[in-house]
Amino acid sequence: MTRITVIGGGIGGCTAAHALLQKGFDVHVYEAQPELKEIGAGVALGPNAMKALRSLGLEQAVRDVGYQGEYQYLLSWKTARVISKTPRADAEKRFGAAGCTIHRADLLDVLSARLPSERLHLGARGAEADTHGDVAWARLRDGTEIEADAIIGADGIHSAVRASLFGADAPRFTGKICYRSVIPVNDVPGPPIQDGTWLGPHGAIVIYRVRRGELINVVAHHDDDTYKHESWITECDRQEPIQRYGKWHESLKRLFSASQVWYKWALYDRDPIPQWTRGRVTVLGDAAHPMLPYLGQGACQAMEDGCVLAMALEAMPDDVPGALQLYERSRRPRASQVVLAARARGVDNHLVSPLAALKRDALIWLRQRISSDRGGRGLTWIPAYDAGSRSVLAM
Questions:
Q1: Which residues does the annotation mark as catalytic?
Q2: Is residue 46 part of a domain?
Q3: What pLDDT does residue 38 have?
């Protein structure tokens, strides 16, 4: 039986483990943290992610702890004018699945709880990986060495596996920052806050519910070239985002004031890397294609990676290096395209000129009415993808 070692037990690593186990591989996951948990934040799962989960038999379990609103909204920062309103049912009809939003901790609970406990090894941080002859090799931070038929680096944006294969990355500061908070719905005074993406000068605010609608996840983006700390677990003064968005719509002020804890981090951009695989070692998720958050595709693309990786290995069971190259050929062009599209969306969301913003909004309105793009912002190729279909393999 082909032995697969996955370094990293986050969303991408656990999804890959499910897909590989489903196809009969001998899989073990090594996670750096002493327990599998995610920090308090939400994640948006598009139709493409839900189809990946469906192929693993996990879609309903995720929906049971997530949230699905009736519409997706784009709104104007000052007046709450609706720029676009897209029915979720439309996604079901056009793409084969509707998206949902979920707390990261709840998603990881679903993924990890359904893996056999003997397949998960906690407190095991990867340090390096390589190919030695016909064997893939990894060394953990504590000196433990592991041999397998393939090593999969799913160890995040600062991947030790990727660095050991191709060297350290070269991130560029974007001049943009994010604030985030998760707020209980019952803590917000006054009428309900409208979920959606609020577009304004120098920034955007993304609001959606998680945990069956009990919590409101807020991610607020803003242009700021003075703060350059990338870690997203750093708290900031709760008055800072309240003041920064003080001129935005009144409902947002009520929402922001209801939060007791805000986190702040700087956004760094990375160009798509030209290679994911060397020998019997490859990478997936943020280790392969870290991306800006403007399309909400980071977790979705990691899930796609895991499903396609398993299909590639199943398609070429007697040639593991060839299967990993097939996985890369199948996934790297698409993931790289999503990375660049997220970069462009960040620019489009932060327009400062009122005339440029009006032109953007008019184009969204026009697309909705004269094309099949119901959201009005292009990129329908992203949700249309089905990672559970063998047609995505670049055979």
A1: 208
A2: yes
A3: 67
Separation between Cα atoms, residue 347 and residue 360, nearest integer Å: 11
CB 241 within 8 A of CB 219: no
Q: What is the pLDDT of residues 168-210, one digit of tens each?
A: 988 999 999 999 999 999 999 999 999 999 999 999 999 999 9
Whether 350 is in a domain gets the answer yes
Q: How many CA atoms lie within 13 A of 279 on its CB side?
A: 21
Q: What is the CATH number of the domain that holds 57?
A: 3.50.50.60
Buried b (16+ CB within 10 A) or exposed e, 380-392: eebbebbbbeeeb
User: Contact at 8 Å (CB) between 181 and 173?
Assistant: no
- Domain limits at 329? 3-170+271-387
**Full-model pTM:** 0.96
Classify burial at 138, counting beta carbons within 10 Å of its beta carbon; exposed 0-12, middle 13-18, buried 19 or more. buried
Indicate the residue type of 41: A
How big is the CA angle at 77 (ends 80 and 298), to the nearest 5 degrees?
110
